Amino acid sequence: MAGTASSNGRETLASIAYQKLLDDIVGGQLQPGSKLRLHALTERYKVGNSPLREALNRLSANGMVQREENRGFRVSPASSEELSELIRTRCWLEELALRESIRRGDVVWEERVLLAFHRLSRKNRLFDEQFIQFDGTWEDLHRAFHLSLLSACNSKILLDFCSQLHEQTLRYRNLSSMKAYRERHELDEHRAIRDAVMDRDADKAVELLRAHYRVTGEIVLASGKLT
Amino acid sequence: MAGTASSNGRETLASIAYQKLLDDIVGGQLQPGSKLRLHALTERYKVGNSPLREALNRLSANGMVQREENRGFRVSPASSEELSELIRTRCWLEELALRESIRRGDVVWEERVLLAFHRLSRKNRLFDEQFIQFDGTWEDLHRAFHLSLLSACNSKILLDFCSQLHEQTLRYRNLSSMKAYRERHELDEHRAIRDAVMDRDADKAVELLRAHYRVTGEIVLASGKLT
DNA sequence: CACGGAAATAATTTCGAAAACCTGTCCACC
DNA sequence: GGTGGACAGGTTTTCGAAATTATTTCCGTG
Question: In the prediction, which pLDDT does B2 show?
Answer without folding.
Answer: 46
